[in-house]
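Q: Please design a sequence for this.
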């Protein structure tokens, strides 16, 4: 049996819902070789098959692709646009039973397909079937999990996602740390993190690195597990990270809040600490009960904006604070939670950013340290829109 674990970051399938659904499906996957190493910037060959009835059913359609991975090992193809040795994609009767997508990949660009995976197609065929249904359907639209047809019918498809990002999603992105086996910044600004470059007052140098962990998609080595008060990631000072009158900070967190209760401090997820003035320029964290908090400081005034409800323990949640001129909006998993006003704009400070820093600052003190997993941190120098925040939560 060929290993499935070498195909990381499950299949992502989307379909544009227009008046006439196109006879294509977008497919993306991250490719790793047998040594679990990313296959980056290399040509790969892929064979795609549509199976009917079961994961081992007959192939009603298959096609071949010559593709190339990008710098992150990601490959993108359009199913329906390859060289088809078997069947015709447009003739598939999606309403006739269940269908499965089988993917086979040769990371060495040959025909030895050493990576394979099969998954059931759940939501994609609905829009494709609209073209063949003969029921007068001329257009469809989608809101959330609901697909609307112009004949008055609608289908609720739990979990359906729009994988086409807003065209503005990377505008103003000054830092992006996906934690794919390292703490590198993938925003293009070079704000790479390290595990040794910081210290806390009275406790000496912090040299412990957090452990690699699975992310919310269960991809290995794709997040970091913080287990004690000395696990920390430090990001050097950069002018691109000195946000003030508007910004957005988005963090995926999976807390267990294991070390707290011995002091009033918040459990830090991310903060820009020190430099000119006192305290943190800005900080996103949790209360000891798990309520998200945004802290801002301009060396004269400090303001704190608390959310209304705690996030779930031992589960992934996206915490997003969108801030502009003293007004902060909090979103949990892409859904607006509450708003706070009259906050101070953070000071521009020549200081590092620290992730999961122990706020207490006393020697050998285990309290007030975030414990749990952190992943996919983004910092923007502008306030994101609801559409953009919803996209981050769903992808």
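A: Design:
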């Amino acid at each position: 049996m060929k290993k499935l674990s070498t195909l990381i970051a499950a299949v992502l399938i989307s379909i544009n819902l227009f008046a006439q659904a196109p006879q294509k499906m977008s497919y993306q996957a991250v490719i790793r070789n047998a040594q679990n190493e990313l296959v980056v910037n290399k040509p790969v060959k892929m064979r795609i098959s549509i199976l009917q009835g079961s994961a081992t059913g007959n192939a009603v359609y298959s096609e071949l692709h010559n593709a190339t991975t990008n710098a992150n090992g990601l490959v993108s193809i359009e199913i329906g646009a390859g060289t088809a040795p078997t069947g015709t994609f447009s003739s598939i009767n999606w309403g006739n039973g269940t269908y499965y997508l089988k993917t086979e990949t040769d990371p060495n660009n040959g025909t030895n397909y050493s990576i394979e995976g099969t998954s059931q197609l759940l939501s994609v065929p609905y829009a494709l079937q609209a073209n063949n249904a003969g029921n007068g359907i001329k257009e469809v639209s989608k809101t959330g999990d609901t697909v609307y047809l112009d004949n008055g019918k609608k289908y609720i498809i739990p979990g359906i996602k729009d994988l086409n990002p807003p065209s503005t999603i990377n505008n103003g992105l000054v830092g992006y740390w996906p934690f794919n086996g390292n703490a590198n910044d993938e925003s293009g600004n070079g704000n790479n993190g390290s595990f040794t470059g910081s210290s806390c007052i009275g406790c000496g140098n912090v040299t412990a690195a957090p452990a690699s962990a699975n992310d919310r998609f269960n991809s290995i080595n794709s997040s970091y597990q913080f287990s004690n008060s000395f696990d920390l990631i430090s990001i050097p000072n950069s002018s691109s990270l000195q946000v003030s009158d508007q910004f957005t900070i988005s963090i995926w967190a999976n807390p267990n809040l294991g070390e707290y209760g011995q002091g009033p401090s918040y459990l830090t997820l991310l903060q820009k600490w020190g430099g000119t003035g006192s305290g943190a320029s800005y900080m996103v964290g949790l209360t000891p009960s798990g309520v998200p908090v945004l802290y801002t400081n301009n060396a004269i005034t400090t303001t704190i904006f608390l959310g209304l409800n705690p996030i779930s323990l031992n589960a992934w949640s996206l915490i997003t604070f969108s801030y502009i001129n003293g007004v902060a909006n909090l979103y949990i998993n892409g859904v607006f939670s509450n708003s706070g006003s009259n906050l101070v704009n953070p000071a521009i400070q020549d200081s590092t950013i620290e992730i999961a820093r122990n706020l207490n600052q006393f020697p050998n003190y285990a309290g007030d340290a975030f414990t749990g997993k952190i992943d996919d941190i983004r910092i923007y120098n502008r306030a994101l829109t609801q559409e953009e925040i919803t996209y981050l939560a769903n992808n």
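Q: Thanks. Anything notable?
A: The first strand starts at residue 7 and ends at 14. Residues 229 and 321 are 25 Å apart (CA to CA).
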